Every structure is written in structure tokens, then in C-alpha cells.
Amino acid sequence: MEPFAALILPPAHPLNIHFRPPPLGQHCPLAEERASGSVESSCLSEMAVPSTDIFKLGFIGAGNMAESIARGVAKSGVLPPPSIRTAHRRPERRLVFESFGVRILETNSQVVDESDIIVLSVKPQAAKQVLSDLKPFLSDEKLLVSIAAGIKLRDLQDWSGQRRIIRVMPNTPSAVGQAASVFSVMCAGEMATEKDEERVASLFRAIGKVWTADEKYFDAVTGLSGSGPAYVYLAIEALADGGVAAGLPRDLALSLASQTVLGAATMVNQTGKHPGQLKDAVTSPAGTTIAGIHELEKGAYRATLMNAVVAATKRCRELSQS
């Protein structure tokens, strides 16, 4: 009898990764080296390590993503908790951040004043007003990092007056240290420095893996890794429902489904093999797995997942233009 078939997602192809794109037509030599292939593209270092480079980190917005990043940074030792600060009106959110040593201030302007790096982690629809309010307190001595979905670097610059800006797209598995984060850098005038990029990479390595990419890919990044966890949750739920339909107890079916997806993803990441190779290795002639795959193919499984990514990308593009 062949082993239980793990869920295999469609093959992924690497982005055409650039290090420092010049969206405003400015000269960025390292970006040109990336684009020409003279600098090899790669995922940045996967592990955060305690740092001797101590700086002050402030969060504008104290929601779940800000909490995940702050916890990861503190837990990994990238920064000591007293070097992290935020402000929030709700006592329960203040208590959450205080519980792991973050300094709580009264206003966002105080957070900006006392921070070297400011992470904008508010809802996208609030970003313009928040940055406009903070504009008098911002300066090029500070680095602005935005994780607000769909807000482009050009808009961030216009609203804030900042020229040192890095835009990052993390995803919700940051809560368990397994985020896929992609960042892009403003390249105009007093742009973000290499040290800025190194610091931001160290922050987001504390919650997962980090890549750099040209901003033009960010809508697609949102459609794939930003929305992707929801697609996988749906697949896990469907696998578990299938197990229940086949006679398994609900708790066992859900445990098997989630562990199977985790194991399959780990196999792809650790072996370096193409998902198709791994699928073929568990697919015996006239066996159970090929029978299941046949049903998935009849239901346009691959095309449906591809269409989901494309649809989410399109919607992200629409929202960013509105």
C-alpha cells in the first residue's frame, strides 16, 4: 500500500528578483548589477541572530502584524524589548505589548520622535491620514518601513515627505515565525541605505524568510503569499472533510491533513526538488495516489489555484489604484 498522499501545491517559479529598483528613474548601480545578473539573486539569510547593532524601533499601529514582528524581534534578540515602542489607545493592546517588554508611549508622534526606524502597520485606508498627520515629525534621519498592503512607494513618499522608505509585504504566518516577506526599496534622492536594508532584513528574518523584489511584483506577491495562507487553509479543511467522508474521526482527519501539508511544504523547501518530482515519487502505477490526482485534475485543481492567485493579484491592483 502506498503512503498517504500529501497535498502538493502547483510548482512555483522564482521571481526576477532585484535588489534596489529605481522606480523614479534614479541611478542605482547595485540594482543595475542585479538586473544584469552580475549579482546573484537569492533568498536572504533565513535565521535572525542577536545583533550588536542596536537601534530604536517604533510601530505606528499596534495590531496583530505589529505584535508578531515585535515579538519575533524581541524573542530572537535582534533588539532588546526596551528598544521597541508603540502607542495605542486601547488598554488591552497596550497590555499585550507591555507583557513582553515593549515601551508604550502616549502618541504616534512620540513614537516617531523616539525611533530610528518607524514601521507603518495601519490599515491601508488609514495610511494617508496617518502619514499626513506625522509628516511634521518625520525626517530623512529616520527610516520609514511600510507593511500597509497595496500602498505604493510613490504614495508613501508623497504623503509622508520621506525619501528613506522600504515597503514590505509579510504574511500572517508571521504569528508563528513562518512568514514569507518581500521588500522593495525607494530609490530616489536620499534613498534607503544598504545598512537600512540590512536592518529591515534582520527584523523580518525574526518572523520567517525574506526576499527582495522590484515593487512591480508586489501585487502578485500579495496574490500569492499574501492571500496564499487562506488557500492552504481551505485545502487543509477540504482534505480533512475528505477524511471524514472516508470514515475518519474529525480530530484525526484535521491533524493528518495539517501535518501532511506541513510535511509536503518542508520536503519542497529542504530537498530542493521540484514538486512534480516529489509527486511522482509517491505516485505508483495504478495506485491510490494517482487515482486521487486523477480526480483533482478532472476538477481543474491546478488551474483553480492559478486562477485564485491571478484574481487576488487583479483585485490588489484595483485597490491600489482606487
UniProtKB/TrEMBL annotation:
<dbReference type="InterPro" id="IPR036291">
    <property type="entry name" value="NAD(P)-bd_dom_sf"/>
</dbReference>
<keyword id="KW-0521">NADP</keyword>
<feature type="domain" description="Pyrroline-5-carboxylate reductase catalytic N-terminal">
    <location>
        <begin position="56"/>
        <end position="150"/>
    </location>
</feature>
<comment type="pathway">
    <text>Amino-acid biosynthesis; L-proline biosynthesis; L-proline from L-glutamate 5-semialdehyde: step 1/1.</text>
</comment>
<feature type="domain" description="Pyrroline-5-carboxylate reductase dimerisation">
    <location>
        <begin position="215"/>
        <end position="319"/>
    </location>
</feature>
<dbReference type="InterPro" id="IPR000304">
    <property type="entry name" value="Pyrroline-COOH_reductase"/>
</dbReference>
<dbReference type="InterPro" id="IPR053790">
    <property type="entry name" value="P5CR-like_CS"/>
</dbReference>
<keyword id="KW-0641">Proline biosynthesis</keyword>
<dbReference type="GO" id="GO:0055129">
    <property type="term" value="P:L-proline biosynthetic process"/>
</dbReference>
<feature type="binding site">
    <location>
        <position position="108"/>
    </location>
    <ligand>
        <name>NADPH</name>
    </ligand>
</feature>
<dbReference type="InterPro" id="IPR008927">
    <property type="entry name" value="6-PGluconate_DH-like_C_sf"/>
</dbReference>
<dbReference type="InterPro" id="IPR029036">
    <property type="entry name" value="P5CR_dimer"/>
</dbReference>
<dbReference type="GO" id="GO:0004735">
    <property type="term" value="F:pyrroline-5-carboxylate reductase activity"/>
</dbReference>
<dbReference type="GO" id="GO:0005737">
    <property type="term" value="C:cytoplasm"/>
</dbReference>
<keyword id="KW-0028">Amino-acid biosynthesis</keyword>
<keyword id="KW-0963">Cytoplasm</keyword>
<protein>
    <recommendedName>
        <fullName>Pyrroline-5-carboxylate reductase</fullName>
        <ecNumber>1.5.1.2</ecNumber>
    </recommendedName>
</protein>
<feature type="binding site">
    <location>
        <begin position="60"/>
        <end position="65"/>
    </location>
    <ligand>
        <name>NADP(+)</name>
    </ligand>
</feature>
<dbReference type="Pfam" id="PF03807">
    <property type="entry name" value="F420_oxidored"/>
</dbReference>
<dbReference type="InterPro" id="IPR028939">
    <property type="entry name" value="P5C_Rdtase_cat_N"/>
</dbReference>
<keyword id="KW-0560">Oxidoreductase</keyword>
<dbReference type="Pfam" id="PF14748">
    <property type="entry name" value="P5CR_dimer"/>
</dbReference>
<comment type="similarity">
    <text>Belongs to the pyrroline-5-carboxylate reductase family.</text>
</comment>
